[in-house]
Amino acid sequence: MNGLKLALPSPEYRERAIDYIREFHEYGSEVHGSGSLDRYLRESTYEAWLEKIKGDLANVPAESTYFCVREADGRVVGMVNIRPVTSEFIMTEAGHVGYSVRPTERRRGYAAFMLGEAVKVCRAAGVRDVVVSCEAGNAASAGTILKCGGALDAEFYSERFKEVIQRYIIR
Question: Which pTM does this prediction carry?
Answer without folding.
Answer: 0.91
